Amino acid sequence: MAGSRLYVARDDKVTAVSRGRLRMSGATVVRRDWNALVELTAPVLDPKPRHSLSDTALVVLPPVLAGSLTAAFAPVEAAIAVGGAVFFAASYLSPVLRRRFDRAGPRTRRADVFLLTGESERQSFQQAVAVADRVSETWPALGALIDANEAEDMLAEALWEIAGALSRRQELTGVLTELSRPDFAAVPAADQTARELTAQLHATRAALSQVGADLARREASLRRTELAGRNFIREQDMRRAIRAAEDSLRAAPPPGLSAEPVDAAAELAEHTQSVLAAYRELTAGLHLNPPLR
After folding, report:
1. For an engineered disulfide with 30, which of 39, 62, 141, 280 has Cβ 3.0 to 4.6 Å away?
2. Percent of the chain clearing pLDDT 90 (strictly above)
3. Which domain holds residue 61?
4. Distance of CA 101 to the CA centre of its chain
């Protein structure tokens, strides 16, 4: 496992995913609770630093220093002449040095960066990042059951692998689009080139299908990780609710409240029936020998 951070830089058209730090200018850091993923957003993705300050220093400082040193040991005219000569030399050398730095490129190697330019690939990666963020939200509840640092590394590695699969799918999709050009289809099927084209179409579709299956498996594993954490948290909440219910049922009733529940309505009904029965009995006794008319 890589064990290092994952760096993501994106604008409206490109998402760059790298194992090495991306040099960006004017970028905004996306805040999140886990540190293994560093995400930057910028209006325009520019992986190279700006050279304005360095160019200015390279052109201005040498003439000033040269003129100052010369003035300490020679007339002012000589210092001005030396400073001017150094200024023109620095003005010439600055673009040369800048082009050399530009050719050196960013600190990361090409193999360390995946550039996602397709809308589908960029959306899929952002969805994977969103799932990863939700996975990290379950860690506090899991407590000592997981090592947070190790979990962060594993989560970053999972996103890196998903980015690689998306980059491969993007590449194969472009190849398939090129092989499927309408003018290519106009070539007679008996032509040798047409047969080779057909073979490459089949091979590319098969490779694309395999990459799609691998990508789906990795995305499903990430979602399954989130679901496992959510299920554990729900189970813990259920157990706490059960224990609270058990404690409540075992607790002694408050003073003045009997252990057996009292049904006032039932007592009233029973009392009413007793009164009515006594009244009927009394009434029946009074009319045993009715008076003669």
Report:
1. 39
2. 40
3. 52-104
4. 33
Which candidate, 108, 154, 109, 148, places its Cα nearest to that of 1? 154
**Within-domain flag for 87:** yes
Q: Which residues contact 211 (CB under 8 A, 6 or more apart)?
A: 165, 168, 169, 172
Please name the residue that has the structure tokens 């692998």: 161
Written in H, E and C, the secondary structure of 90-138 is HHHHHHHHHHHHHHHCCCCCHHHEEEECCHHHHHHHHHHHHHHHHHHHC
Query: Tokens for 129?
Result: 């990042």
What's the whole-number mean pLDDT along residues 207-236?
Answer: 94
8 A C-beta contact, residue 151 and residue 37: no
Query: Which residues, 6 or more positions from 283, have their beta carbon under 8 angstroms from its beta carbon?
Result: none
Same domain, 182 and 40: yes
Q: What pLDDT digit, counting tens, does each position of 8-49 carry? A: 999 889 999 999 888 777 788 889 889 999 998 887 766 544
User: What are the φ and ψ backbone dihedral angles of 75, each rounded to 5 degrees?
Assistant: -60, 160
Residue type, 232: F
Q: How far apart are CA 115 and CA 164, in angstroms?
A: 9
- Give the highest mean pLDDT range of 72-81, 157-166, 185-194: 157-166
Q: What residue ranges in the chain does DSSP mark as E strands?
A: 6-10, 15-18, 28-29, 37-41, 113-116
SS3 call for 106: coil
Amino acid type, 272: T
**Residue 185 and residue 126 share a domain:** yes
Return left, alpha or beta for 30; rule: phi > 0 is left, psi -120 to 50 is alpha, else beta: beta
What gap in Å lies between CA 67 and CA 74, rounded to an integer? Answer: 10
